[in-house]
């Protein structure tokens, strides 16, 4: 409620939550000379740089190097015994994070926005009350309001799990020891990246997932190969399981499965998806509605049910990637200015930062066949690419799906070293509407992983 004594501050743009889309829009708008308030409850720069993409990829770099060092002799180097120093590991990760947070903070201030540190809650349409972190409150109304409050780790309702001190993707980064035995509940993006990382740091890791197969949305000929590599790297995987109960015992945490089996670990990580940050946001007062899972309902222009009120990023149900949140910023920026930019039909790439990486864009083979198109599939083992030999990193397989009638590239799955970089080459060709022959016949520098695209588009399976 707005009290009669409250002074309501009017601004052109009010951003609630400083995630990727929101902070970018706030800076842009402020630089253009408009009055902008961005409310952030604590993490300068948002989830990605503080507790998600950036710190985890910094740790993935260390894990990869650990794996490489273990095979350094094959590169002609004798590096001695590998030792993981958790104190140094954390300072590496925290160093990367703090550099980015400081840079963000400076950019926020330079843009001229009013960065307000505190907890925002809607009290009326387009109006929030902010409980300031330093004490006190402010009430701010935006001509336009953008909600970008993100998501937080989901803890499944398994009896005993919370009481057993389950870790999340955030708290596992604060551990002051490497667990000897780690159980990872959930074999999605978070689960697989952490599982392989901790295996490289010396943990015995078991991934439990309710799905029978790994990443069931992907083609099995790719995920089976990835699963094989994870096993090679010491990650045990149990699919199609359901956890009945978790009990803390003197020597660790015992995880009871519905099928009668049980296993003991020092720690258990829940990597079972993320919940939207909408409860407690006062969305009813704002006239903003949510779906049955609590994500904000938006149309394809990212408009909510309330006038001049928009939602972006994870909380708006967008695919949960930082680059998608950034694209939401582009969509909302245009639409606030009266445009009609849509989120429909976006070509969304993503990378799973395992070792090797799985890079994906466009349709899988199964999805392409389901469209009824005349589909052609190419498959190339990564070891056929000379660069992988010089890297001594030959694990992987590349796959392309093409329309046989039009030569259009429908999608690729690139499992292999540096795949995340090569992916953008294919994506660019897809944006430009180039036929696969452009990549098959293009003059690409040697020896690079991208050069493998020449060969991929000759490696037809039929
Ligand atoms: C472990 C992990 C690794 C990941 N790795 C990758 C990756 O490699 N690549 C990739 O693309 N994506 C990755 N993601 C996903 C990515 O982190 C998210 O999609 C992205 O951060 C979503 O950003 P956002 O814009 O929705 O908002 P967020 O960055 O989540 O920002 C929301 C902000 O709102 C603030 N806030 C919330 N409520 C309030 C309130 N009431 N008042 C004030 N402030 C509030 C929060 O403090 C937060 O700073 C990863 C996720 C995880 C968990
Ligand atoms: N490299 C990247 O870009 C990257 C990395 C990490 C996270 N992310 C983003 O963050 C999001 C969240 O990641 P996530 O891994 O937490 O979620 P996810 O949805 O990717 O995977 C969750 C997994 O947990 C399983 N699961 C759920 N409940 C379970 C239960 N009770 N018992 C057993 N298994 C269960 C699901 O079957 C699924 O395989 C991802 O969807 C992704 O968009 C991206």
Report a brief summary of the structure.
The protein contains 13 helices and 20 strands.
State the main characteristics:
Pyridine nucleotide-disulfide oxidoreductase, flavin adenine dinucleotide binding, FAD/NAD-bd_sf, alpha/beta, 5-stranded antiparallel β-sheet, 462 residues, Pyr_nucl-diS_OxRdtase_dimer, NAD(P)H dehydrogenase (quinone) activity, binds flavin-adenine dinucleotide, single chain, 5-stranded mixed barrel, binds nicotinamide-adenine-dinucleotide
Describe what you observe in this structure.
This protein is an alpha/beta fold and 462 residues long. It has helices at 20-31, 47-51, 53-70, 86-111, 189-200, 220-232, 283-286, 322-336, 365-370, 386-391, 419-432, 436-441, 452-456; strands spanning 8-16, 36-40, 114-124, 127-132, 137-147, 151-153, 181-185, 204-208, 235-238, 243-249, 252-257, 262-265, 267-270, 274-276, 309-311, 350-352, 357-362, 375-381, 397-403, 409-416. α1 runs parallel beside α4 (86-111), α3 (53-70) packs antiparallel against α4 (86-111) and α3 (53-70) packs parallel to α5 (189-200). It starts with 7 loop residues before the first strand and ends in a 6-residue tail after the last helix. Nicotinamide-adenine-dinucleotide binds next to α5 and β16.
Helix content: 25-40%
**DSSP summary, beta strand count:** 20
What best-fitting shape do the alpha-carbon axes yield?
globular
Main sheet strand line-up: 1-2-3-4-5
- The number of distinct helices, counting runs of at least 4 residues, comes to 13
Average pLDDT level: 97
Unique ligands = flavin-adenine dinucleotide, nicotinamide-adenine-dinucleotide
Q: Helices and strands: which structural class?
A: alpha/beta
N-C termini distance: 67 Å
User: What fraction of residues sit in β-strands?
Assistant: 25-35%
> Largest beta sheet, briefly?
5 strands, mixed, barrel
Q: What gyration radius follows from the Cα positions, in whole Å?
A: 24 Å
Low-confidence stretches: none
């Amino acid at each position: 409620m707005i009290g009669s004594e409250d002074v309501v501050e009017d601004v052109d743009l009010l951003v609630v939550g400083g995630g990727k889309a929101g902070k970018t829009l706030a800076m842009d708008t402020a630089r253009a000379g408009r009055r902008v308030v961005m409310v952030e409850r604590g993490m300068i720069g948002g989830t990605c740089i503080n507790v998600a993409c950036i710190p985890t990829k910094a740790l993935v770099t260390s894990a990869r190097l650990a794996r490489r060092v273990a095979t350094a002799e094959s590169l002609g180097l004798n590096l001695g015994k590998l030792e993981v120093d958790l104190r140094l590991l954390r300072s590496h990760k925290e160093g990367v994070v703090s550099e980015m947070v400081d840079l963000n903070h400076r950019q926020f201030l330079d843009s001229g926005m009013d960065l307000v540190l505190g907890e925002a809650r809607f009290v009326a349409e387009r109006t929030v009350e902010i409980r300031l972190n330093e004490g006190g409150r402010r009430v701010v109304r935006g001509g336009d309001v953008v909600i970008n409050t993100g998501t937080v780790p989901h803890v499944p309702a398994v009896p005993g799990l919370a009481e057993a001190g389950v870790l999340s993707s955030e708290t596992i980064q604060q551990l002051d020891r490497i667990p000897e035995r780690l159980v990872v509940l959930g074999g999605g993006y978070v689960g697989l990246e952490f599982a392989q990382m901790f295996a490289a740091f010396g943990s015995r890791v078991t991934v439990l997932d309710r799905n029978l197969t790994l990443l069931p949305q992907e083609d099995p000929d790719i995920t089976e190969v990835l699963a094989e590599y994870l096993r090679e790297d010491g990650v045990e995987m149990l699919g199609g399981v359901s956890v009945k109960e978790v009990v803390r015992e003197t020597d660790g945490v015992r995880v009871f499965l519905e099928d009668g089996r049980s296993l003991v670990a020092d720690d258990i990580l829940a990597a079972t998806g993320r919940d939207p940050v909408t409860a407690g946001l006062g969305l009813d007062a704002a006239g903003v509605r949510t779906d049955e899972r609590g994500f904000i309902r938006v149309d394809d222009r990212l408009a909510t049910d309330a006038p001049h009120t928009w939602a972006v990023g994870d909380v708006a149900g967008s695919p949960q990637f930082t680059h998608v949140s950034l694209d939401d910023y582009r969509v909302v920026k245009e639409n606030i200015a009266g445009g009609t930019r849509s989120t429909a039909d976006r070509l969304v790439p993503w990378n799973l930062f395992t070792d090797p990486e799985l890079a994906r864009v466009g349709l899988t083979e199964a999805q392409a066949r389901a469209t009824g198109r005349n589909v052609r599939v190419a498959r190339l083992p990564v070891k056929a690419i000379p660069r992988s030999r010089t890297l001594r990193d030959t694990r992987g397989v590349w796959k392309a799906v093409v329309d046989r009638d039009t030569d259009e590239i429908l999608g690729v799955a690139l499992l292999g070293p540096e795949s995340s970089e090569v992916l953008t080459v294919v994506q660019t060709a897809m944006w430009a509407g180039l036929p696969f022959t452009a990549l098959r016949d293009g003059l690409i520098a040697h020896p690079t992983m991208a050069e493998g695209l020449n060969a991929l588009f000759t490696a037809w399976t039929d």
